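User: Can you help me understand a structure? I only have the sequence.
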Amino acid sequence: MGKQGLLYDGLKKYFGFDTFKGNQEAIINSIISGKDTFVLMPTGGGKSLCYQLPALLLEGTAIIISPLIALMKNQVDAMRNFSEDDGVAHFLNSSLNKQEIEEVKKDIVSGKTKLLYVAPESLTKNENIDFLRNVKISFYAIDEAHCISEWGHDFRPEYRRIRPIVTEIGIRPVITLTATATPKVQHDIQKNLGMTNAAVFKSSFNRPNLYYEVRPKTEKVDENIIKYILSQESKSGIVYCLSRKKVDDFAKILLENEIKALPYHAGMDAATRSANQDAFLKEDVDVIVATIAFGMGIDKPDVRYVIHYDIPKSLEGYYQETGRAGRDGGEGKCIAFYSNKDLQKLERFMKDKPISEIEIGKQLLLETAAYAETSVCRRKVLLHYFGEDYNKTNCEHCDNCLNPKIKVEAKELLITVFEAIIALKEKQKAEYLINFLMGKETSDIETFEHDQLEEFGSGADEEENTWETIIQQATLDNYLKKDIENYGILKITKKGKDFLKNPVSFKITKEDEDGDLDGLENEDSDSIISSGGSAGAADPVLYSMMKDLRKKVAKRLNLPPYVIFQNPSFEAMATSYPITLEELQNIPGVGAGKAKRYGKEFVELIKKHVEENEIVRPEDLRVKTIANKSKLKISIVQGIDRKVALDDLAESKGIDFNEMLSEVEAIIYSGTKINIDYFLDEVMGQDVLDDIYDYFKNAETDDLDMAKEELPEYTEEDIRLVRIKFFSDMAN
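Assistant: Let's start by predicting it. Here is the structure, written out as tokens:
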């Protein structure tokens, strides 16, 4: 029987399949013929089989180097299911006692063991090196190989020591596998392992069945996620959070709301962690709330949604985690909640690291922010990050493609960008370039005397985010490239130089200019996830009627429209149709005070609309929270009632003054009336108060950045304090 016959026989005998998937057959042939092999294959593409089958067919034991104990256990259990003998696969790591280690070694020596999984830390132990030197090794497989690169999302220093140890044990073919690697990371892995001549197999990173959506992260994030999970009727899902504490807290909140959920993070004891993982795999629970420690190699095919409570530190991490959805090719919704504040927090965490690591970390965060803030097809942005072009104009399966923004011609603006890059001799990053275009006299620009150049300030007529959009779109269209080796310096490509000689049409997406509530829409208001995936109100007719009514009411009361109800509250009303004041005050961002003050006409309008169109209203959905969350807000309201100075109140609660202001803002935006006049009298003059108050009275939006621009003589704290008073007086 020929080599191919043996391959197909093995595939059928051990795994029960008749055909290989994608590149699997070519990869296995490469390993069997003794070549170093580099495999880049997205999650769900069948990576494990690429080393499992040749390990079973070749003489000797394959050494599988893998980063996580949970992953090894999972894989060993799976391999034992394919074979009649448990000795076919073992792992060697810190979870085994002396006797168990001896049993593993006995099976290897007797030739029973075809796959030995080891952690890199175990590989470096002298007794293991000495033992493996005398073992017939078929090949080494390095799984999750992106851990080798500092540019990878999960860098582990011990991975960089694999090559010398492999050489010490005995040189055999090496296969490296990763589900996520940018071109930079791929180069890093090959260089570090001395595999620059390896056969490279790269599968497409496009997962057509995954739907991508990014939502603004607001005060109501818990409520949004709960509503979404409840709409998923017992489907399996994962919620990723960055901190262990958030994992524990949010798992409790889900349980309070009768959602079967369990936490999973590295701070839990191994037995509990393992039990929680098994409960999810066996479907005793629907949801796992986890840090990124969860899911490496978890082969659950029917995870129907992956929610990111916090945006991750890198797009690689995000891709890896969303890749756990829809591995069976069925539905997979990937919804991330994004607030720029989260990224700022992640940047602060890096401050004690070496400079090079901080620079790398910042670049990765910038890429993540660009993805979260873009209005371009998310699939296109994601695939471009992994060095793959996606040329469809509409993927029809992400929020930006389902709700396309208007496109405008920006050929002249791109020429302005190119001229600025050339003036700066292609030596600056995007952030520096934008400051230069805007004419900002930063200390760096003054040091290099770039403020003396003719092109300085050539883009001051445009908004900063317009330049960000142009740079991102030009990078996606391959007019520009970021030199990653030099922390993201912008270079003009050959295609870009051709464009300069002969400019063609270049379009960018234009942001919505509704202007109703630009600032708070992203920060402190609610957002609804509709199960169909697209953002926006469920009932566009009602939404539009409510906006018209708001205009009339605002005109009559001589108030800015945003004071009455904010757009996200309208979205919620157009989804759940409140027809009494009591129901209205359960709408996010409304509350009792606002419902009484402005609600009557709105509930009458909704009631009429429901009756005329014979709409069946969804049942009321009240989200329970765990007490701690509201405890702080209640004690702040009590403190203000007792006229405690806000700075003293902040100190007594162990939070800084800015956090205190955010808490107070959340209280008033939810419709509670409070009076901070006693504190304002103490900290600012009447003329300052009147000036800022008048501004908000006439402004179209309560966006803080816009207010700071219009009121440059006042501090941000003063503006926020007066905004609190204004909103409480007018809206609640």
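Now, to help you interpret it: The chain has five domains: 3-202, 210-402, 406-510, 518-612, 627-731. Residues 184 and 485 are 8 Å apart (CA to CA). Let me know which part you'd like to focus on.
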